Structures are given as structure tokens and as C-alpha cells.
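[09:14] KT: can someone run the structure on this one? pasting the chain below
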Amino acid sequence: MKSYFIKEDGVVVLKRFVIEKGLPDGMVSSMLLNCDEIVADIVNNRLTPGSTTWFFDATDDTLQFDVEAFSMGSWIRNKYGLWLSDINPLVEKDADGTDCKHADDVSLKIMRLITRTLRGEYTPKSSKTPGEKFDSAMSIVRQ
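[09:31] RB: done, C-alpha cells below
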């Protein structure tokens, strides 16, 4: 069993799936979040004060190193289904089966967007309105 953040009835939830033939049984692509929904979910619901500050201060080199060092980038890839190239529209395979949009590249893009969001340079286009936790995260970076 593996757990993924998915959309269920318009709400982001953490759901456990049985893995069948390499894919979560019962998961379909419409359950997966797009880049902006992932950014909004992380900023609104997943960041601690320490990680909020880390993202706000991060340089592109810091983000790239994190993706390669299997830290936050790995967590994003695993929890938001970025390895599921058979069903995830954010990552794709070429006809020969090789990735043409690799999960590492997508997670780096998401991390860059988180940084830009916290700096006030980007607003995720998500169906969810930023709530109290988003306001708390933003107040941390304004201090």
C-alpha cells in the first residue's frame, strides 16, 4: 500500500492505495493534482514555519541540490504521484517508454513555484482559495 495526495470530491485528501501491476488500484488521472494545485496544497497545508523560511530563502542551486539529494523533491514526487507516468499528465513517456517530462524536473518546477509564491511573485491558479494556513505561512515570510 502507498499513500498519495489526491482530489476527492474537490478536496485534497491523503488516500492509501493497493499497488497492482505497478499502479495504485482504482486511481485515475483525474484524481491527481496539477502543478498549481500541488503548489497551493503545499503552501496552504504542508509547510512548517521552518520549511516556509527555507523555501523563501532558497536559491535555484539550493532547490536543484534538494531534488538531487532526495529530500523535499522526493517527498513531492512520491506523495503527489509524479512517478506514475502511465496515468499522471504532469509526466509523460515517449513512444520508446522513456520519460520526456521527468518527475525530477516536475518536482523542481513545483519547488520553484513554491518559492515564488512565498515571495509574492506567483499566485497558483488553483480552484482552492488560500485559507488560514496560507495566511500563516505568508505572515512567517513577512517577519
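[09:33] KT: thanks! The first helix runs from residue 35 to 46.
[09:34] RB: yep, looked fine to me
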